[in-house]
Specification:
With 388 residues, this protein is an alpha+beta fold. It has three domains: 222 residues, no CATH class; 45 residues, no CATH class; 83 residues, Immunoglobulin-like (Sandwich), CATH 2.60.40. Helices cover 21% and strands 24% of the residues. The strands form three sheets. It has a seven-stranded antiparallel beta sheet. Strands 11-10-13-14 form a four-stranded antiparallel beta sheet, with no helix packed on it. Strands 8-9-12 form a three-stranded antiparallel beta sheet. Strand 3 and strand 4 form a beta hairpin. The chain binds calcium ion (CA) (3 copies). The site of one calcium ion has 7 residues, from helix 6. One calcium ion binds next to helix 6.
Amino acid sequence: MKDLTNRIKNGARNLVLYGAVAFGLAFGTGEAQSQEQTENYKHFVNPYIAPREIKDYWGSGDTNNDGVINQADATAMQAGTANYRTDVDGDGAMSTSADLALLKKYLNGEIKYLPGHWNKLESVAERKNWFKKMLAIDDTNYFREGWSCGNYSSNLFYNMNWVENITNWEQYNTQNRIYDLSDLGIFNLPVYIVSTTAKNGGSHAINGIFLGSDTTFEDNSTNFKYWLFLEPQTDEEITPGNFSMDENKPVKVGGIVYGYSKSLKKYLWVTGNILEWNLNNGTPSLSYQSEDLVTTRPSSSGIDPGCPNTSGYSLSVFPNPFTYEINVSLPEFQNVRLYLMDLNGRVLFKTPCIAPLMKIRESVLGKLPAGAYFIQVGRERQTVVKVQ
Ligand SMILES: [Ca+2]
Ligand SMILES: [Ca+2]
Ligand SMILES: [Ca+2]
């Protein structure tokens, strides 16, 4: 790590990235809800989803880049077409027989999504696995003479995330032309720039991505522990107390975004933060969140895909009160999960809903103490009471 320490020391002198401009200055109350809000901004304040609604990104499976993933893409792969979109297993090798086999599985419905379809991924493990693969492919961690930590962090942000119209940004043209923009947004992953303080006291810039939680009710973007932080100079994971993150200094998540300011009546680029925590011996406490920050996973992302249809239907749970068994009746097949939780939202049991009538049996319920619990299916929640 000596090499990294020296590079950070050298770089820290140049680090003048953040702190002066917050989104609040450019996007006051209500302004971000404006019709004139840019796509870039809408995605920037939503750490759950890919930065762009496109198919032109690493591993998408859209071999011929026509915006649709279908048989023509498999045919083109079979005929030898190879590009970054054809590396659907994310191993860095394009258009291999393994990639083709995986794409075919997706096309014939054997799998619901490809490993790079970020918005559809259903578990932390899937998201972490794909992000690590893309990080291994991305070359930001290769040494560049004269770069500061902020340069590495910005470079990873550009490659993973995106900035709309960046070449029209005055600051880009005066200060930032050192970046190779041929990879701008190529990975289409919601990676942010993270401002920290290094253990030597210097301002430092690293990166982070929200991987979320498999427990729906903890899957909140303000929850520090569900972010993965990394050192873009080495690709290593960072936790409080590592050299790159002093465990007693603030951690700020942000980046660069193109948006519309109603007060200034113009489109502009802003550097700023969507989230800040104070660390105290490594324990985070939230100190700022953008008023536009999205804090629940959008149902269209593929989590609980039946959710949009579940609002308003009545969940039938019986008997209630219960002793050893609960039946949960759905009006029709719903591709959602069923959760049993305590009153603090802690998940005690979960299962996919595979039939209109679900049973939670004695093996699960027998050992629960008497008291009140929640049953949650999709967005519907009911209180049930266990009696002895
Ligand atoms: Ca296609
Ligand atoms: Ca591959
Ligand atoms: Ca890398």
